[in-house]
Amino acid sequence: MPKPLLSIGIIFKNEIRCLERCLSSLAPLREAVPCELVVADTGSDDGSREIAEKYADVVFDFPWINDFSAARNAVMDRCSGRWYLTLDADEWLDSDVKELSSFLRSNNRKDLDVCTVVVRNYGEIDNFDDYNDFLTIRILRMSTGIRYEGAVHEMWRGPDDGFVNKTLSHTILHHDGYVGLNEDAGKAKRQRNQALLEELLKEDPDNVRTLLQYIESSRPDPQHLDYVRRGLAAVEGKKEGWRAFGPPIFRYAVLAARNHNLPEEEEWTARGVELFPDSFYSRIDIAFLAFIRCWENKQYKECIPWGEMYMAAIEDYDAGRGDQVALRVSTLLGASHQWRQKMLTGMAVACREEGQPARAVEFLEKVEVLTGNLVGETLKNLQECQVSTGQDTAPAILRLYQRITSEPDGKRAEELMDAFLQTAPLAFGPDVREKEAAREDFHRCSYTLYTPLAGQCEVGTAAAVMEAEGVQELDRLLGMVKNWGDFSVSALIHALEHGAAFPPPAGNVRIEEMDRIAKRLSQYKERFFRVACQGAGRSGSWRELAWAKSMAFAAVRAFDWTDQEQGMALAEAFAKAAGGYVSRCYTPEVLREENIEVLPPVYRFGWYAGRAFQALESGDNMGYVKLLRAGLESCPEMKIMVEFLTEHTPQLGPSASQELLALAGQVRTLLAAYDPEDPAVAALKQSPVYQKVAHLIEGLEAPVAGGLAQ
Predict the structure, then answer these.
(1) How far apart, in whole angstroms, are the C-alpha atoms of residue 462 and residue 477?
(2) Looking at the whole model, is its pTM more than 0.85?
(3) 174: part of which helix (H) or strand (E)?
(4) How many angstroms separate the CA atoms of 283 and 304, rounded?
(5) C-alpha 431: how far from chain center
């Protein structure tokens, strides 16, 4: 085997969760350049050793002696490559190895000692948006003879801590080993590190580097604040290493003050920036924390300079300006994508509140869509700008929507679109519009934010419908809708109230979709009932007839049957729509009483209701009642409607003649004299006299069997 160009070293113990991911990720690099993989097992008993043997060229045992440097140096001692790359088992190499392989093949400089790469620390398992990048030395030229130092948080030390270094900014080691480190699951790992660090601090209590490492290893633990204060005292005392390790210590101090609501938060913020004005830990991390403090206290004027400091530092960080090497001592928290997006949305609020709407929208235009929460926050911010300012928001909403729809990851794309469709339609509700219009700073309704998206999505088309003038334009816009489930029902009922045709002439809406739309519309109660009554008498196309039926059916199910006038109008509209629909859809042979059972229950009731109102119109009050009861037997769910009609139909109530009322009283008296099971009772109920006054006797008190009043 030729001498390897690169040796890759790993130590592991019981890493069954992630070891194979780590080792398999090295395949592209091992194919690109001659490599050897050397791994040390420090005491696994979970099957990790077997996985290592599948991939590694050398696997050996190294009994754990509470010293990370000793284990890593044992690996290095078995390597023979020109360069050495070290990984942890909970890391994996990014699939893009072009930069690294090119460097290894082409760089023979004898004066180059090490290479810095990017370690991307994730905050959640499988959430690749929540991360912080950390620059760290992971590649060493073997001929330097340098070895690891430090029992914990081990590192390579060059002459006078100086290295000739090259940064490989596109070589990324992904890392999820910190997930849960600050929770109960990471307690054992924290305690292991703390024990090792405590031994070091016994020898050198003011070692600023070790204090920083202890602070990082104890964040959720009770002693954390004590070590934060010790670290601050060491920095203020200008102990050795204070310039290098002081900035992240102050950053952690401000973070701890926020988490524990300490009165020193502002003092430590100001002091950290004063001591280290050029450090990224001050300009990014501390500035972000100071911004959040001011934002939560609604001190928007104070927010803006902190946000500006943060933004300028992010530009320098991304461009490679400033002291990037200083970032090797600790993770930079605030440069992550999620923190950047929070700053953009926060600055938008601050600028809007301080009368800078143009800047507010400018910040919102820069938001990168990464999560559903960010989509929702950005939309709410843009809607607020729409309501309270006259700023042109069209470019911002167009750009945001383009980002949502161009997301290549299918799962992510669905998440982003779901967030869009959960937030945007809320702007259309009549209560929302009423509240907005009552505001002193009102400029326009928030739903108008979406009008630039007309034709691109149903939310945009709905906004255009709300703004449209004239039936012709409404019909045109409704004809553009493809997915009625995403279309605002508030916009649709607005269009119907203004005379728009539905289903739209240019559209194609199936009857089951009509039923779903009508059910959604029924939430608007009074407005919907009026529209349903107006459309009940249509006898145009099949589709119009089907829509009238869907509205009528949804209306009677949603109505509470307390208003007599509206209830009667709705019942008559239902009878017209349902009767007209079944008479067009079914043959006369089917629509005979002996065959009517072949219809679905609600259609049967509609057929009976239509005939009942015809009987009422002709003066046959008893026929009206009998047909309603026959309909109820066919469809018991309509009981409340039948009861309402029996009580509130004028022809059946107080307007009945005194003669009929007297006759009904006589019949009641006669019935009371007999046992209900007496054959004479059954004979009386079949008589013409009883039939004439049955609706007055039985009323709502009639016994019911199978849903049919007997």
Answers:
(1) 8
(2) no
(3) strand 165-175
(4) 14
(5) 24
